[in-house]
Amino acid sequence: MTVQRIAAFSDAGQGGNPAGIVISEQLPADAEMRRIAAEVGYSETAFAAPNGAPDQWRVRYFSPESEVPFCGHATIALGAALAAHSGDGRYRLMLNQAEISVEASASAETTRAALQSPPTRSKPAAPELVEAALTLFGYSKEQLDPALPPAEIHGGADHLMLALKDRADLAAMSYDLDAGRTLMREFGLVTIMLVHARSNTEFDVRNAFASGGVLEDPATGAAAAAFAGYLRDLGWPHRNRIQITQGEDMGARSSITAEFEDQPGSSIRVSGATRMIAHS
């Protein structure tokens, strides 16, 4: 079984978040998918198999420690792999809990892909969750940006969003992996998203992913979709398009674009470039 390794949301041919991609005639058994994901060692590996129509695929995502309902960067990487496998175009993806799509087109330089997320929703974060997260990272409430209140956000998976006033506080992010895993699993979170607003449409981001056994993700498309939905719910002056820079503080600069309409809860278009790492 061939595993492709593709980085999603790369920036000028560098960085991005690597994902494992397995395309096969049928999905392997759950235990086999868990084993492969653990062996690959990336934050997620996506498994895809034909699902009836030529443009329709059944997809599941596994981290080294657990199955996740939706993964944005692995979907972007899968789009690049499907373009190489079946040609440029739009593909429908049947997930465990939603149906989404990804479209991809290749050029001489790279393959770009764009996904349409599941519906989004957000709500103010529970005070006990905010307190626990601040303790985990060693932040105080005074370091939070009041313009972007803490929120529980969803765009196919659940995340906590905390915004920081000072970019240096974002750069200083650190936490204990085991403590983070316990907190995220207790509250049903896939990641904790830390954000600094550079402008109304440009954001620096770090995503802690202890729930999947990974300290930090260099690019998180699912959280980007959820965050865009949150900005829309908040009435933020987003101009229907935001740019996220992620991974810079860990030496893997990534670039994520999110575009969306004003209708509450509607799908977010998340796009970026990819780069091939290896086959095995």
Description:
The protein is of the alpha+beta class and 280 residues long. It has six helices and 17 strands. β2, α1 (30-40) and β3 form a beta-alpha-beta unit. The radius of gyration is 17 Å and the shape is globular.
What is the topology?
Layout: E1 4-10, E2 17-23, H1 30-40, E3 45-51, E4 53-62, E5 67-68, H2 72-86, E6 89-94, E7 99-106, E8 111-116, E9 121-124, H3 127-137, E10 151-154, E11 158-163, H4 167-171, H5 177-187, E12 191-197, E13 202-209, E14 214-217, H6 221-234, E15 241-246, E16 254-259, E17 269-279
Parallel strand pairs: 2-3, 4-6, 11-12, 13-15
Antiparallel strand pairs: 1-2, 1-17, 3-4, 4-5, 6-7, 7-8, 8-17, 9-10, 10-11, 12-13, 13-14, 15-16, 16-17
The SSE order reads EEHEEEHEEEEHEEHHEEEHEEE
Biggest β-sheet, characterized? 8 strands, mixed, barrel
Mean pLDDT: 96
Beta-strand level of the residues, as a percent range?
Answer: 35-45%
Number of strands: 17
Shape: globular
**Structural class of the helix and strand makeup?**
alpha+beta
Radius of gyration: 17 Å
Low-pLDDT runs of 5+ residues are: none
Output the strand order for the largest sheet. Answer: 1-2-3-4-6-7-8-17
